[in-house]
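MODEL INPUT / OUTPUT PAIR
PAIR INDEX: 1
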Amino acid sequence: MAQPMIMRLARHKGSSLRNFSGLLQIITHPGSACSEGHTTGRALSTAAIGGGHQCYHKRDVDLTPKVDRHLLFDTHTLVTRLETNGFTPEQAECVTLCLIEIMNSTLEKNQKELVSKLQQEIMMQQLMAHMSSIRKDMVILEKSEFSMLRNENDKLKGQVEQLKKTLKDDISKLKSGIALDINLEKSQALRKRNQTWRKELL
């Protein structure tokens, strides 16, 4: 069941793949190419494919890796395994190119939606810097508020002391006035009593 589906996919998305051997060498995992025999095998009879099957149209695939893009699989091994399991060279090459396109689109989407470790570290550093700045602002605000409260408290203390002094002076003046009034009343009462006593003697 799998082979007919792949064949239909190959008919719709195939290509002449004349330069497929060069493409394989570009995206092949480093170290997989060892000898001339392997390099010849990687060509996969590309000339015969290009000349005998005109139904496969060329499909441009951007295989230029970006700075942080990596294709971590051996395309030559994949093509060889597909051929071993019954795929024709054209089908194996087409499936490989489809996988490359899928991986490239997936990597591009991930690069747009996800952040790298470096970006995450930069964001963490920025966040820590903001937190440190906020902490410093809070300390400064706390100190300034404490200073304002202390100044206000000192001001209130001064006002209370001034009020106490004023009240003490008022009380002292009131006492002096009351004592003076009492003395005047006493002197008047004594004078009246003396006058009354003199009248009685006469």
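PAIR INDEX: 2
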Amino acid sequence: ALKQIGRRILDGLVTYQDQGAEQLAQLEDTAHALRARLTAEMEAGSREAEAWSTRGGELEIDGLVTCGATLRRKQREQCRASSVQEQRRFAAQLQELAVGGASLTVILDDIRGQVDSFEVGYRQAQEKLRQLDEVASQRLREEDEALDVAVASNQGLRRQMENNASVSATNLCSRVQYLYLA
């Protein structure tokens, strides 16, 4: 009964450990996908900033040719303002992704801690089962030894009773002969 209970506990721990390992793998995949997305967003932001910078330069040249100094200043300011807005937007997105990545890292570390805890529990359950098996084996040996002693005692008693019966039968025969002859 103890062995079955121990095995049930062990099976439950193994199942729980497998679920933890699956969750860990899923979280690692999610973290990897978020990191890839973050990298892609950063590269896209960098390219867009370069495009805005290039566009600003082109607008600046066009402004010099067509509109004069006042128009150039307005275009530069608009380009800078637009570029600053885009940079802020990308910085906010990068910040959100970094926070999300950090959050996933914390979750991943927590799951790893849980898996480690389950492994410790699993090892403890295995040790407890081993100890219970040893106790059961010891009891079985002791019971076998006690049974062997009882069987030997019963055989000795049987021989003694057979000898007593033989002696009693001999005595009875002697008395019967004595009474018959007398």
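PAIR 2 NOTE: The two ends are 71 Å apart (CA to CA).
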